[in-house]
Amino acid sequence: MRQAIILAGGKGTRLQARLGDIPKPMVNIAGKPLLEHQILLAKQHDFSHIIITVHYQAEKIKAYFGDGKKWNLTIEYIEEQQPLGTAGAILANLNYLADNFLVMYGDTMLNVDLSQLWQTHIQQQADSTLFLHPNDHPQDSDLVETDNNDRILAFHPYPHSSDHYYPNLVNAALYIIQKNALLPWREFKNPIDFGKELFPAMLRKGLYLYGYRSTEYIKDAGTPERLDKVCTDLYSGKIQRGSLQISIPAIFLDRDGTLNHEIGYIRFSQDLNLIDNVSYAVKRFNQAELRTIVITNQPVVARGDCTEADLKQIHNKLETLLGREGAYLDAIYYCPHHPDKGFPNERSDLKIQCLCRKPEINLVQAAQKKFNVDMPNSWFIGDSTIDIQTAKNAGLRSILVRTGKNGCDDKYGVRPDFECFDLQAAADFILDKFPTLLSQARLLTTELKPGDHIALGGLARSGKSTWATLIRYALTERHIPVAIISLDGWLKNQEDRTQDGVLSRYDLPAIVEFIAKIKNISSLTELNIPSYNRLARNRNQQTEKITISPSHVVIFEGVIALLIDKLQQSTSHLFYVDCSEEVRKYNFHREYISRGLSDMEIKALYQAREKDETPVILSSKTRPDIVCINEI
């Protein structure tokens, strides 16, 4: 029999205007007292014996809940003659308690998998298990520090020292406690508080406190503002969605070059500095109820350049900086391994080929399992081809951000689904633009069928690659396989180009030869597609491998797609991507800023393209049968 204790003795001074003549735990939420919501959750998870500690207006709580038969439960009461603190009433009545018991505070609304919490406590054989979660204001919260195995090491009450970074882990006032662990404190002077006094005392005595990390829904409803927020969350369905029993999408994030500036290996916390507006992006993901999870390779540990304690401080700083701007990460997963040997201070135990180092996906799978992630609707955002390959291996949508390595690391020949200039743009794309654009793509592709070939063109920076992927997504929903061929892969190296217009920048004979090869495919065939390094302005060493069959829809995408006669003759549909000149000019400027050009150089390049490229591309606008309007 599982036993739960609900601390319901509070008067609720801050809620007095809403309470009238009822005690705080009886405050109405959607037609039921808050306390009843808690009891129903406990019953759902097989807690059949409920003890309620009461003090202020105890008779009203007893009159409503009685002995619990109405809910097919056993309910008993411990009445405090005077307030004993959150732990005092429990310490004074240990004889009534089971060997292990759950503690809930009477002013919290929650939707937590209490069965999983209970099972974890039993498996850990902990003296106490505390439910911990990140929040959006760690700077003014009491924080909890754990080791890599989630054993609690310390409690850090607010206010915090400005010269030390703490993890964003908050005690959410939900515990499972082993009764025998409390025996040394049964004569402790009252009142006594769990968080401020009892748990720190247990730590000092060497007891095992386990931190159960979760992002499930739990909120204090003890003020008018918090009560209103809880009610809003209930009516909107947020509380229901807050359980890990419901699968929801996640945003998987690379760290260096995506969240913080890429400066090589970061060995100390002072070296970590956030890229502008990443807090805005992470906060948007938080508000959209998307799990936000970092997946990062940190070979500095294996190389001996950084200890795991140092890495923990680096990640504490990352969480602190985000928290100062109202954002939080649900989790950080890192791989400490490195396969190469020969570093002066390397750790031999970490010099291994592992399955957690990106682009391997063990860390992604661990997060998927822990957070019950809806993988097909989740995203991986990073600045390197390693990140994009990880997304591909894990079956995630991918976005390459043009910060950090800018996708030019040339480690893997792989194409991202989408590209955005930074994490802020990626958040805006995912949350504001992607759903609408995908709906448009579905409408524009209703006539497409297996085996069709498409030429998709338009001006530079108008959104062609974005639309190629949107078309792929729309067709994949109809179970039609799609292959995208970027004609930019056949751009000539910078030193091989002439000044004879846009077509002269491409290896046209090679493109025509490839088109013919595609046209003659009669069975499943693997092909190598060249790719272009925009920073070096040369071909990459790595090529993209794609598999094409006669049933594939093949999309040839690029500035010159509608200018190649051979391509037009072999395709069944011509698409043109159009956008306003204001948007295109903005995209053009951001593109070449990311490539390191100055404003003056960008202006000169834009003017040159307006002369030798834009008129030719615009002349092809009359040819397509489908026009995609892009306002990204």
Number of helices: 20
What is the CATH architecture term of the largest domain? Alpha-Beta Complex
Question: In which range does the helix fraction lie?
Answer: 25-40%
Largest sheet: 7 strands, mixed
What share of the residues does DSSP label as strand, in percent?
15-25%
Description of the molecule:
The chain is an alpha/beta fold and about 625 residues long. It has three domains: about 1-240, Spore Coat Polysaccharide Biosynthesis Protein SpsA, Chain A, CATH 3.90.550.10; about 245-435, HAD superfamily/HAD-like (Rossmann fold); about 445-630, Rossmann fold (3-Layer(aba) Sandwich). The protein has 20 helices and 28 strands. The strands form eight sheets. The protein has a seven-stranded mixed sheet with strand order 5-4-1-6-11-8-12, with helices on both faces. It has a six-stranded parallel sheet with strand order 16-15-14-17-18-19. It has a five-stranded parallel sheet with strand order 21-26-20-27-28. Helix 9 (about 280-285) packs across helix 14 (about 425-445), helix 14 (about 425-445) packs across helix 15 and helix 18 crosses helix 19. The longest helix has 22 residues, at about 425-445.
Features:
632 residues; alpha/beta; Spore Coat Polysaccharide Biosynthesis Protein SpsA, Chain A; Rossmann fold; 3 domains; 20 helices; 28 strands
Quick rundown:
The chain is of the alpha/beta class. 33% of the residues lie in helices and 21% in strands.
